[in-house]
Amino acid sequence: MVRIDFLVFGYRKIAVSPSQLSVVTSALLRAGISAAINSKGEFCVRERDLQKTKGALDGKVEYELSELLGLYGAYKKINCKRGLLCGIVLSLVICVLASSVVWDVRVEGNESIPDAAIVYELSKCGFSQGGFWSACDKSDIEALILSKYPSLSWININRRGTVAYVTVSEQADDTDEMNFAKQGYANVVASCDCVIEEITVSKGTAVVKIGDAVKKGDVLISGVVETENGGEYCYAEGRVIGRMSDTVKASAARSESVKTKGVENLLSFKVEIFNFPINILKRYRNLSEECDIIDNVRVLSIFGKCNLPIKFISTYSVEYEYEQTLRSDADLVRLASARLNSATMKRLVGADLIKVRTYGDYTDEGYEMYSRIVFLADVGEPLPFTIE
Amino acid sequence: MTGRGKKEIKRAVSDIAALSSFRIEASRSSSGMAVFVSGIIGVENFSDTNIVLMSHGGRVSLSGQRLSLGLYENNTVEISGRVEEMCFKYGKN
């Protein structure tokens, strides 16, 4: 089987005596010539390597050369090249024009609103089957549809090839929430030690009041409700805000091993036309365990607006090296401060900060910082119970 | 007096190792197996049942059926076909 790059760029078949194959292959290898050889004494070389091949073989072996073969060879034989080029240009234009039209609109994710209604509204906004992709602004159309259908909470128009996929999400019905009411019985308990700042009861009975200090696991809202008949159980719900304190630490080492990016080495290059790959170049090299393999994909487009079904994919390997760096005092403080900020932000997710005090000190290893924070957060969590 | 002297090119150990970067990679293919061998300096024997490749550090002998050879520019050789046995011999070439 002939290689794809030989077929595209043109090749010649060379026939030698089978007994001289080892001499021929060694000569080609030394000259750095790519060839595909079979045991019958025939091999193919690229047209651009022909002179080099003749130089490597002349005087050593007798050989027979065929005419120029492959796509380039066929192109050379054509008399009317202008007609061929016009045909290629015309077919590219037809491809581009055909791919710039919306061939179909498909709706998904809708339950109560029929597909035809959404497609009709889209056509009124200027987006329909047969229209051009570039003729309308998709974000404007999405906003118009959402304003016309209050029951829709989200709409997105995706382009896959020449088909528009309209994905919608409808708002959940209020009755659905009642149907999904929590089953069973539960108390609301404290998730950590804190002082109660605010308590709002939706269901159940409050056991603590504002200002009480509670420990982790203490009941805050009970699932027992007193009624005229004595009492009944329920799934307690409510919002309990507690004030608590915590310490967040961060440090920076004076000497640290830092990963630095090395040289990028090209491993392979291929062209994909309509998702069919054509391998142009492939290199083999010993790769270390620490290296990254990066695929760089570039899609051919016309003035950046219309993408063609042609991709250039190049694969690189990037080696990394580790360097020991010594940080100055200022760098240590800067780094420890950044790490402390990040740790504090992470701790305060869903909480309101009231007070913070930060301390820092140099140590033998580097610099250590810590912050004492006081904050408010939701401390109630449901703890189901069963009745025997 | 200034003049251009001869530059001494000293090869580091890593450069010498890179010259003979022997590597084998094999995968299944439609014709049986495709074996890529890098760091080859010559071909000692080639037939449809036996191929012997030479590298700086020895020889690689592949035997099987319907074997074919592909040469690449960076001293890499591809053997495709029904590879059945692979032998390694050591010694300077």
Key phrases:
heterodimer; A: 388 residues; alpha+beta; five-stranded antiparallel sheet; four-stranded antiparallel sheet; 9 helices; 44% strand; B: 93 residues; mainly beta; six-stranded antiparallel sheet; 1 helix; 8% helix; globular; disordered N terminus
The gist of it:
The complex is a heterodimer of chains A (about 400) and B (about 90). With about 400 residues, chain A is α+β, with helices and mostly antiparallel strands.
SSE class of chain A: alpha+beta
Number of helices of chain A: 9
Roughly what fraction of the amino acids of chain B lie in strands? over 45%
How many E-type strands of chain A?
A: 22
Overall pLDDT of chain B = 79
> What is the H/E string of chain B?
HEEEEEE
> Helix count of chain B?
1
* Amino- and carboxy-terminal Cα gap of chain B: 46 Å
Strand order of the largest sheet of chain A: 11-9-15-21-20
Shape call of chain A: flat
User: What multimeric state do the chains show?
Assistant: heterodimer
Number of strands of chain B: 6
Give the helix proportion of chain A (percent range): 25-40%
Radius of gyration of chain B: 18 Å
Biggest β-sheet of chain B, characterized?
Answer: 6 strands, antiparallel
Largest sheet of chain A: 5 strands, antiparallel
Rounded to the nearest angstrom, the radius of gyration of chain A is 36 Å
* Biggest chain pair interface: A-B, 23 and 25 residues
User: Average pLDDT value of chain A?
Assistant: 86
